[in-house]
Amino acid sequence: DYTGGIKYGLTYDMRLVLERASARETAMRVAIAAIVRQLLAEFGIQIGSYVRSIGQVEAMIPDLPYSELFARAEASDVRCPDPVAAEAMREHILGTIKRRDTLGGVFEVVATGVPIGLGSYVQWDRKLDGRLAQALMSIHAIKGVEIGPAFENARKYGTEVHDEFVLSQPPDQTLGVSETPRVSDLIGRPTNRAGGLEGGITNGQPIIVRAAMKPISTTLTPLRSVDLATGEPAMTNYERSDVCAVPAAAVVGEAMVAWVLGEALVEKLGGDSLEEMKAHRYANGV
């Protein structure tokens, strides 16, 4: 409210800032992304999310297919696929309500079925990891984004981080030249520490992005402030806020990832209709 009031000269009525800056704006992003997700589904791309932590409670994400993780998250009121951590998160939120405070946390968005080649390594503003990071950072109260386990990787050696290539199946030497499969069809990678993106381009593995949400600033417990009308010290007034919005933010995160991938897919394939895009897909080997 303060920065917007100073920027636009609206300190006489902060409501002109706070109403326009409300996270309620993200409802339209989710609504539009629902249409984008239908387009992505036509090309086998699915997007889901789950909460990794709320406050001091960390989840142990089960080693399950992403489809199962997504289903478990959808069935959880705190959007966590780890039932033990989910219960601890609920208790943590209830305790925070009693202490008249707020909580932040970390959520993870995953996109599966993404083909190789979306994005670009050529221009800085076309790098897909950069576009995804910007999209997620545009969500209210998001203060950090990483692709895959980026911060964990930063503490390791390169040999412990980089994703090795292996042959997923041996080449069939009996095939004719015209029938020889592409090299990319024969290559697999046992790890995905890059989070599905290399050089700003999708590499065919699941895209994994994590976002850190700070605790909401509006708290039931008053904090020190200044009355801009009088210039005197004052305490904040409480109107309304959530105690923890991390599960809801994860849904908005899905929407932003869908939005970015939808744009990248249209850029890659082109066309004025779904049928044309599909025809270009097979022609381009996507």
Can you put this structure into words, describing what you see?
This protein is of the alpha+beta class and 286 residues long. 37% of the residues lie in helices and 17% in strands. The longest helix has 24 residues, at 246-269. 30% of the residues are buried. Residues 174-178 have low confidence and may be disordered.
Strand order, biggest sheet?
2-1-3-9-4
What is Rg?
Answer: 22 Å
- Average residue-wise pLDDT: 92
Distance between the termini: 46 Å
Give the helices and strands, then pairings.
Blueprint: H1 2-8, H2 15-18, H3 26-41, E1 46-54, E2 57-58, H4 66-74, H5 83-98, E3 105-112, H6 128-137, E4 142-147, H7 150-153, H8 158-161, E5 166-167, E6 187-188, E7 197-198, E8 201-202, E9 207-213, E10 224-227, E11 232-235, H9 246-269, H10 274-284
Antiparallel strand pairs: 1-2, 1-3, 3-9, 4-9, 5-6, 7-8, 10-11
Helix pairs in contact: 3-9, 6-9
Features:
37% helix; 286 residues; 10 helices; 5-stranded antiparallel β-sheet; 11 strands; single chain; two-stranded antiparallel sheet; alpha+beta
Compact description:
This protein has 10 helices and 11 strands.
